[in-house]
Design goal:
mainly alpha, 4 helices, 2 strands
């Protein structure tokens, strides 16, 4: 199921989306956590990107496993990339949970005259704790996405490009 999309390996297609969507999701969530006046606007995008990043990380992980199973000679070359990708999946799982919690718990004002989109804050300590969790896991997702992509690129391209 995760091996091919048409005639192409699914992993090769999915990783390009992951390299873009995961950092965008994390940055959007960080802005949502740190800028209360933008929460009314970012609430739905944070929820969708948080859950979408989990789905994307899962498909990337499973398609990578299927790709290595189809081409066993790659197993040694992609060992570090695979380990980093596994860790990235767990970070994305935590990120999705924290994003859902942030959407439910963090309040904010609305610039609309009707006040639509405004949400009251439950408690200040809970707001600070949730915001800190979003920032920490968001930074980890960005960092691990870069590390995972770097390990994959080195596994594929190291020594093949002219100096």
């Amino acid at each position: 199921m995760f091996e091919r999309f048409g005639d192409l390996p699914l992993h090769v297609l999915v990783i390009h989306a992951a390299v873009v969507v995961l950092p965008v999701a994390a940055l959007t969530a960080i802005v949502f956590a740190l800028v209360p006046r933008w929460r009314w606007l970012l609430r739905w995008p944070v929820l969708l990107l948080g859950l979408g990043s989990l789905v994307l990380a899962y498909v990337a992980k499973e398609s990578g496993d299927a790709f290595v199973a189809a081409v066993p000679t790659l197993e040694q070359a992609v060992r570090e990339h695979e380990a980093r990708g596994d860790l990235l999946f767990w970070y994305c799982l935590i990120f999705a949970a924290v994003a859902v919690a942030a959407v439910l718990l963090l309040g904010g004002t609305s610039p609309l005259a009707s006040g639509k989109g405004a949400k009251a804050t439950k408690s200040r300590p809970l707001e600070l704790l949730t915001s800190a969790a979003v920032v920490v896991i968001g930074v980890l997702v960005i960092w691990q996405t870069i590390r995972t992509g770097d390990a994959g690129a080195k596994a594929v391209w190291d020594g093949q490009l002219p100096k």
